[in-house]
């Protein structure tokens, strides 16, 4: 086979997050690769609250409309990301303290957007990152004003606005046992209230070392046991060290101080052969696990198309050269791509 989407046909969808210039089809090399390799897309930033609903009575749909049209033109499974999230939230909404107003604003937001794309956006990341690492609820402004009711509200509204859309709770580090338990509690409580939830999205911003396959597998099993699907929504494997993985003294320094430090950026130009092999091994192991549980997994989406376009060049430290995806900066498939394809 000649593409990821064909290789994994019948197993799960294969996707990529698209940036603005890709959505606007300004970037032909990207578009060619996206159309060839992927059958599902996610907007990296363009449907977040601050972008799509920048003022209380102003929605900005230009780019989102183009995004949906691009997906439809290619018969892709179209993901909406994300309706309710404390981050990249419009400033006018950030400090709302009145619960009645907050409910009204969430209603207006979810209804307007989900109805606009009814029958066209196939899956919604309804709520993003509502949990802490220990599985308790994050004390975002949403939570401070409404408690965890904002979560059920958002799911209820989305289900009413488009009964056929798949509704997902999305978060990072969902392999962690304590956070996993928090998601299980959340999904159960929604189900007990009769609120529709179809899936758990594991973001999957991972590294060469972790998380362990066992932890990921235990989460797949725990979520699937609730009767919901598991999606890997934002997969990438950083090839560079994260500051919090270094020793305590190092972590106390501000991230900016690492810029230019060879320890933090060991492959500034290109991946060494050895590192490319490590990345390939890691992706192979990850995809073996996905295939083992393909009956529970409906989608694997990469967070970006090629290495040069990945957010990991800017986060958590700005200006590093990272290599987290399956395609290099020239849009060529890497060793990791070959090893993933060889599984089929
Ligand atoms: C990231 C984007 O990739 C960046 O371009 C942006 O500056 C910040 O957000 N979890 C999510 C995604 O759910 O929306 C985030 O995307 C990455 C972490």
UniProtKB/TrEMBL annotation:
UniProt xrefs under InterPro entries: GH (IPR017853), GH10 (IPR044846), GH10_AS (IPR031158), GH10_dom (IPR001000)
Catalytic reactions of this protein: Endohydrolysis of (1->4)-beta-D-xylosidic linkages in xylans
Residue numbers annotated as active site: 234 (nucleophile)
**What sequence ranges are listed for the domain GH10?**
1-343
List the GO molecular function terms: endo-1,4-beta-xylanase activity
Coiled-coil parts of chain: none
Q: What is this protein called?
A: Beta-xylanase
Report the EC code(s) recorded for this entry.
Answer: 3.2.1.8
Q: Which family does it belong to?
A: Belongs to the glycosyl hydrolase 10 (cellulase F) family.
Q: Which organism is it from?
A: Algibacter lectus
The record ties this protein, via SUPFAM superfamilies, to: (Trans)glycosidases
Q: Pfam families of this UniProt entry? A: Glyco_hydro_10 (PF00331)
């Amino acid at each position: 086979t000649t593409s990821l989407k064909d290789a994994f046909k019948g197993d799960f969808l294969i996707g990529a997050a698209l940036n603005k210039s890709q959505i606007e089809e300004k970037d032909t090399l990207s578009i060619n690769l996206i159309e060839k390799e992927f059958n599902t897309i996610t907007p990296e930033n363009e449907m977040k609250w601050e972008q799509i609903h920048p003022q209380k009575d102003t929605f900005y749909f230009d780019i989102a409309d183009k995004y949906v049209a691009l997906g439809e033109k290619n018969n892709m499974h179209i993901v909406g990301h994300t309706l309710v999230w404390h981050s990249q939230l419009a400033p006018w909404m950030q400090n709302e303290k009145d619960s009645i107003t907050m409910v009204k604003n969430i209603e207006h937001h979810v209804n307007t957007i989900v109805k606009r794309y009814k029958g066209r956006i196939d899956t919604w990341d309804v709520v993003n990152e509502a949990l802490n690492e220990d599985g308790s609820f994050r004390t975002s402004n949403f939570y401070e004003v409404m408690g965890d009711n904002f979560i059920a509200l958002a799911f209820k509204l989305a289900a009413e606005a488009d009964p056929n859309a798949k509704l997902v709770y999305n978060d990072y580090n969902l392999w962690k046992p304590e956070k996993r338990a928090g998601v299980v509690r959340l999904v159960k409580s929604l189900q007990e209230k009769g609120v529709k939830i179809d899936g758990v999205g594991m973001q999957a911003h991972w590294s060469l070392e972790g998380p362990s396959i066992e932890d990921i597998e235990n989460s797949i099993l725990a979520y699937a046991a609730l009767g919901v699907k598991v999606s890997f929504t934002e997969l990438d494997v950083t090839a560079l060290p994260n500051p919090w993985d270094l020793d305590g003294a190092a972590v106390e320094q501000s991230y900016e101080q690492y810029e230019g430090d060879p320890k933090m950026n060991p492959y500034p130009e290109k991946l060494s052969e050895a590192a490319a092999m490590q990345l390939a091994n890691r992706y192979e192991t990850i995809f073996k696990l996905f295939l083992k549980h393909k009956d529970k997994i409906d989608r694997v989406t990469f967070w970006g198309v090629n290495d040069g376009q990945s957010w990991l060049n800017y986060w958590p430290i700005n200006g590093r050269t990272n290599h987290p995806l399956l395609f290099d900066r020239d849009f060529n498939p890497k060793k990791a791509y070959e090893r993933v394809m060889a599984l089929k």
